[in-house]
Task: structure prediction
Amino acid sequence: MSSSEHIRALEELAAMDAVVAALEEQLGEKRAALAALTEALEAARARLATDEALIASADKQRNDLHVEIRTMNGQIEHSRDKLNRSRTERETNAAQRELEELRKLMRDREDEITRIETETAPTRTQIGETQAEVERLAAELAAQEGDITEKVKQLEADKTDAGGGREAISKKLPVVLYRRYEMIRGRRGTAVAQTSDGTCKACNMALPPQLFHKLRREPLIDQCPSCQRIIYFVSPEPQKVD
Result:
């Protein structure tokens, strides 16, 4: 095959790969959107579980304190009875000390309950907000999951169709040239560049004059010294005259 035919094959291959790359980008965006929703939902559920565990622990502690207070109320009544039945100053003083100590312990328990309720109030509010967020994300994911999955399937099918003739086109190129094309595409994303005015249209760098004149004289394939893409000459489009 001539260089002109090789150039046409490279153009076909580059055009096909550009379509496939665009479809792959769309696939990536759809999959990323689905993954982001799933990740956000899992994160919200994790926050909810953490907050609920904290509240469960706080509620248990508070309930235990209430049990202690009920027990102390009984002990206080018992101490009052002892105070009322005391016959000596010593017994009276001992009963009063016991009563005051129990009252102090009960106040401490009540203060602890107040502290727990104050500290957990924001978390209880947050639980309500997080529950609403979980419900919203779950509904959004349910609404979009099917749609995104269908779009992904369609894009995958389009990608397969777009690249279906790639093997036939690649066989039109010499093995060495095709391997070079693939190597450059893997590094640069695109492997082919054109020049019309001495500048590489891919990297916008000026070509050495000798290289440009050689490409312009006859259909040749070379490489841009700056970006290493496979480069060839195309005639500039004629300027339109009004």
In short: The helical segments are 3-85, 89-162, 166-170, 175-188, 209-217.
